[in-house]
Write a structure and sequence with these properties.
With about 210 residues, this protein is an all-alpha fold. The chain contains 6 helices and no strands.
Length: about 210
């Protein structure tokens, strides 16, 4: 009877339920962080601990209180991703500012009234290779699919590593992240029942035969 509620549903169903509730709690935690920043204009890293508690309890509820290493790992991953989400907007903002600065620098080089640069003349020699790259015609090259994928992978890696990189400048950041992950892990410890006995019940004051 004690073990029956832990086995409600299927293992896959419990995991996806824990994933859904944990992800919702992670989004809620990130929203709380942004709300605090908007109201106070201060970034409080201690909110990460609150995120760890929210995610840990949500995953625990989704697993029907079962717990175990799978749910512990899930809660820790979701907690870290929620923390990462708080670093993503500043990174994108900085990238946007750099793009705007480069665009402004390029536009400033073309002064009004300046004569346009004549297009290059390409002479084709019979028997020669007529394939020319975009840079040969004076136009910038178009990035290939491999370059785009590599750039996106680098950006994703930078965002995922942002909490660690930021904590390197402030050691207390490691402590806060560690506590948040520990809380998510601790809440989802596996449940084990230890039943001892049987014991002989005797009347008070009665001796054993």
């Amino acid at each position: 009877r004690l073990d029956a509620p832990l086995n409600t549903g299927t293992p896959k169903g419990r995991f996806f339920k824990a994933l859904g509730l944990g992800a919702a709690a992670a989004v809620l935690g990130a929203g709380i962080y942004y709300a605090i920043v908007a109201l106070t204009h201060y970034e409080l890293g201690i909110v990460a601990i609150v995120v760890g508690l929210l995610v840990g309890k949500a995953v625990r509820k989704g697993s029907n209180g079962r717990g175990g290493w799978r749910y512990q790992a899930l809660a820790m991953v979701l907690t870290y991703l929620a923390i990462v989400a708080t670093y993503a907007p500043p990174i994108f903002q900085a990238l946007g500012e750099q793009i705007d600065q480069r665009a402004a620098a390029k536009s400033s080089t073309a002064a009004p009234g300046r004569e346009a640069t004549p297009a290059p003349v390409i002479t084709v020699t019979p028997g020669a290779d007529t394939s020319a790259t975009a840079s040969d015609n004076g136009h910038p090259k178009v990035a290939g699919a491999g370059t785009v994928i590599a750039a996106l992978a680098l950006l994703a890696g930078l965002i995922l590593a942002a909490p660690i990189l930021s904590a390197m400048n402030s050691p207390i950041g490691f402590i806060i992240i560690g506590i948040a992950l520990y809380e998510a892990w601790k809440i989802n410890r596996g449940t084990a029942f230890t039943i001892t006995g049987p014991y002989r019940v005797v009347a008070p004051g009665a001796g054993t035969a």
